[in-house]
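pasting for ref
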Amino acid sequence: MTSPALDILLEQYQIAVQLYQHEDELNWAKLNHLFYINSGLWAIVGFILQADIAQHAPLDPNFVVAFVSAVGLVVSVAFEIALWYGTLYMYSRKNAVIHIEKALIEQGGAHLVSVPTEAPSYLHRSPTMWMLRAVPALFTLAWLAMLGIQCVRPLL
């Protein structure tokens, strides 16, 4: 490969790695924000469900908890969608890095992001992708359960 072509490939590699890192950091930031929002919403629910608060509240505590639960549900579903597609986009950026890296390996480079084919299969796909996707789903289920409890409670 000629020097100008190799220079272009190296420049593309640097940009591709930066895009991949950016997407990875963005996904973790989304998950971090999801934890903060859910912590706040669960704190509100816990505060409202305290026995002495419920007796003196100007609004029906069951309604307020159901409303907060609905907000939590919407937030969790939104983050679930954002993280699902964020991980897909991150892996498309990783595949771009791997594609360029293969061309560099042919020029004497080494595996940095890609995994050699002889490596164990568990090294070919990161399990953290599933964690990034599962956490919002768990929050969604928790808010659905809380909303269901609040909707059924008045009937009991």
